[in-house]
Design a protein that fits this description.
The protein is built from two helices and five strands, in the order βββββαα. The protein is α+β, with helices and mostly antiparallel strands. Strand 2 and strand 3 form a beta hairpin. Bound molecules: zinc ion (ZN).
Amino acid sequence: MNEKIVKIRKPRQCHGCLEKYPVGTKMEHGVHFGEGTAYSVYFCLECVDMIKIIPRDFFQDGIFEGDITEWVLYEFGVRE
Ligand SMILES: [Zn+2]
């Protein structure tokens, strides 16, 4: 993976929490490889911080859409 922080030029959805962010928001852009193809994903900075503290084995199969929210709910028992 190779990630960098960018200011988005189009509205983007965070891959981790599925929140939508407006133009000009700083997000981490990364290119992921899977299933024979490369695709780009965006994470909001809150999810980037979460990813740093989430145990690696939680993401054995990679990070799927909404996974960060799932983990936060699981770890902190937050209820909407
Ligand atoms: Zn997020």
